[in-house]
Amino acid sequence: MQEQPDQESWQRQHDVHLLRHYSTISAPVEAPFAKLPRYKVRRAAEYINDNVREDLTLAMVAKAVSMSPYHFAHVFKQATGLAPHRYVMERRIEQAKSLLRETDLPITEIANKVGYSNPSHFSVVFHRSTSVTPRQIQRRSMSSVGRPQ
Question: In the chain, what's the furthest Cα-to-Cα distance?
Answer without folding.
Answer: 92
